[in-house]
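Quick one, T. Sequence first:
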Amino acid sequence: DYIVIGVDLNREYGVIGSFIKRKIFSKNGRLILFDSNFNSLKNVANYVFGTDELESGFEKLKDLDSPIVIYKNLSEKEVEILNKYKNFRFFHLPFETNSIGLLKENIKHKIEKSKNIIFIGKNLQGLKDIAKESFTIVFTPYETDEINKFDLLIPINDGFEREGSFYNVDGKVVNKAKVLDSKFETFDLKAILEELIKVKSL
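Structure tokens:
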């Protein structure tokens, strides 16, 4: 069984959406969909619930045997509900193809609420909308319209996964090289982190 929470796999993750549909059409699994918005998979799903029906929906589906839960973002309440089910397996979707390498390290994608947020990454879109009440510090080499929204911006030499290797959709390691340079004075992120570690250990 496949439980999909709050994401349209057809529109956002076509490869995964096609895989799930093949399983459903060949009767090799059921699709249980939790989404309060329009979702193109509703017509092929075996069960459809709103995202606010997560707990009551699971109560109705007593025969779930080690289902795979597929999600992109989870609220704290949703995490709490899902943690009650020890037989569930989880697949947290990357925001970008390059982020698949993070999945191998079990870094989960969920909405975090905190007084202070330190962000090191490439995709700043929508970050401040999630962290409206937080003091947000961003380390990035990228100059976009989004950078004016943050409380403190620290320009760095290299962006996250701009060079080195990453995992693509097929799970293959792909090498990439840095091709962009910042026109601003930048800082070495590695050196900053090393200094922070030294201070913490004193």
